[in-house]
Design a protein that fits this description.
There is one protein chain. The protein is α+β, with helices and mostly antiparallel strands and 164 residues long. It has a single domain, classed as OB fold (Dihydrolipoamide Acetyltransferase, E2P). Strands 1, 2, 3, 4, 5, 6 and 7 form a seven-stranded antiparallel sheet that branches. A hairpin with a 5-residue loop joins strand 2 and strand 3. 23% of the residues are buried.
């Protein structure tokens, strides 16, 4: 890899996926629907990040969710987004950022420990993002609140281990 390809543009480590491209496995089809600080709707998925080798949160808008929905509905991929690895690419900057969601040609096997780490994160997702509701509730009319602002980067996921 040349130095340009290995260049990291953000400082520090976060439990939220911010670097793209991102190679991940989505392990839940019931994301947490939440509002960002501007009132925009976001969808938080617990995922396994192959790039960071840990369970992380993908908390992005509708364009990424539409791509994930299409994969989940596509019988060519078994009609199950949790059974395939995906890569999310981005182009542009700021409000002009566009994302594409692609299925990778080869799916890697996840270990029991990796799946367990993502499931634990999924269990604690509503404690990390406090203003959200699950998509299953959202589809029945329940709405996320904008009452609480949260700073998810300040609290590492490990801090929620005892709350399950």
């Amino acid at each position: 890899m040349n130095p340009l390809q290995g260049l990291k543009l953000s400082e520090g480590s976060s439990d939220f996926i911010k670097q793209f491209p991102a190679k991940i496995r989505v392990l839940s089809t019931d994301p947490l629907v939440n509002l960002d600080k501007f009132g925009g709707t976001k969808f938080a998925f617990p995922v396994w990040s192959y790039d960071e080798q840990k369970a992380m949160i993908l908390n992005k808008g509708a364009s990424i969710v539409k791509g994930i929905q299409q994969i989940d509905a596509d019988e060519d991929y078994g009609g199950d987004v949790t059974a395939v690895d995906i890569k999310i690419l981005s182009s542009g900057e700021g409000k002009e950022t566009r994302y594409s969601v692609n299925v990778l040609p080869k799916t890697q096997d996840l270990t029991e420990e990796q799946v367990e780490a993502v499931n634990k994160l999924d269990t604690n997702l509503s404690k990390i993002i406090k203003n959200g509701v699950r998509a299953s509730e959202f589809n029945k009319g329940k709405k996320p609140t904008a009452e609480e602002e949260y700073e998810p980067e300040e609290t590492p996921i490990e801090a929620y281990d005892d709350l399950a």
